[in-house]
Amino acid sequence: MKQGLVLAGxxxxxxxxxAGARECASDLGHGWPPAVGNYGQxxxxxxxxxxxxxxxxxxxxxxGVETGVALLPGPRDQAxxxxxxxxxxxxxxxxxxxxxxxxxLRVDQQPDQYQVSIPAPLAQRLLHSWQAALAAQVPGDRKxxxxxxxxxxxxxxxxxYSGTRPECGAGRLMMKQVALLIEASDxxxxxxxxxxxxxxxxxxxxxxxxxxxxx
Length: 215
Known about the structure:
Layout: H1 2-12, H2 14-21, E1 29-30, H3 37-48, E2 55-60, E3 67-72, E4 80-86, E5 92-95, E6 102-105, E7 112-118, H4 120-137, E8 151-156, E9 159-163, H5 169-185, H6 192-210
Antiparallel strand pairs: 1-9, 2-3, 2-8, 3-4, 4-7, 5-6, 8-9
């Protein structure tokens, strides 16, 4: 019930956040960008198998290896799992060994992965905050754009949003939170409380922004 009230409060702030969004352009749209879906889904399957994260972000770079962050719910109100994944070798590869050449999705590999337990209330707060932030940034009828470069794809409670890396406003704070999650995934247990405090403070900042109280 408490989490529902938090989400309701964030959603009530959307008109203010949408007004601010006009001053901070984002190209994020719904779904996968054209011609990216098979690639992105292959990366997600490599990282998470058949699991269905409540929240995830995959980075599909123009060059270099793919990475991803995922939050996997625990049973009932128990701790969730935070997982950071990094492909061992680039999944998207051009195979020139054939006469005509072609794309090869190299999923026969073991990615590097780091994971820790994250308190359920903090994970749920992150989920609801990102739901509100993305709803404010992305009009309901806007599809993910055609991209010829780096692609970021968020999935939040089953809804997918894709585009380029946001550099301002709520998107910038979300990317800061991604960095905090990645750092926490490889942090010793005795230092995790500090990481969670940093994340909680960043979520305070995001909530203030959605409420029109922070620049």
